[in-house]
Specification:
By secondary structure, the protein is α+β, with helices and mostly antiparallel strands. The chain has 4 helices and 12 strands, in the order αβααββββββαβββββ.
């Protein structure tokens, strides 16, 4: 009977070690960082900081992308993301983001005509395509809120390293005045 217990303990130990190795391997990320980048320095970046201060702190980004966000008028409350925390029976908890469903919005082009309608679940706004701002005001009234057209630049300080797309995402968003408007840090799991 003693011998049976020994084999059972050895077998159980091997299973525990194998499960631990699999868990550790599944939690690994494959991230390539910009030269000079550190997570500690990233935490020091604050809203309103100048672009040159960010670059002095973090070094040159791996890439950057500048985009223009068009003007939009929205007819409902602003969407808010919800974070749901799930406790695991193991050693960690997970967070899931519930994507918000926002209100219907009309998006204007550079000629100030509607070129897109988003989240029109009731079909009220489809007829506004190509209409001017005064036409929209006359048809559906004042929006609950307006988002002005803006230009922003995203500085990317990390990217996937290899074929595995599990990586730590670090980016800084600069407004049109080259000031920090947001920092983004999250892990993407494949």
């Amino acid at each position: 009977m003693n011998r049976w217990r020994q084999w059972l303990m050895i077998g159980g130990g091997v299973i525990v070690l194998a499960l631990g190795a699999l868990t550790a391997a599944s939690l690994m990320t494959h991230t390539r960082y910009a030269p000079g980048f550190t997570e500690a320095a990233f935490e020091k970046v604050s809203t309103g900081a100048k672009a040159e201060d960010v670059l002095a702190l973090l070094g040159q980004p791996l890439s950057r992308r500048t985009e223009r966000s068009p003007e939009r008028w929205c007819y409902g409350d602003r969407p808010m993301a919800e974070v749901e925390e799930k406790k695991s029976w193991f050693f960690w908890s997970t967070h899931r983001f519930k994507l918000p469903v926002g209100p219907p919005c009309v998006v204007f082009d550079d000629a100030e005509k509607v070129h897109q309608v988003v989240r029109d679940r009731e079909g009220r706004f489809g007829a506004l395509m190509g209409k001017t701002k005064p036409d929209v005001l006359q048809a559906v009234g004042e929006p609950k809120y307006k988002e002005p057209a803006t230009t922003y630049t995203v500085l990317y300080f990390s990217e996937p390293d290899g074929d595995d797309v599990s990586f730590k995402h670090y980016a800084v968003v600069l407004d049109a005045n080259d000031r920090v408007s947001d920092r983004m840090h999250y892990t993407i799991w494949d």
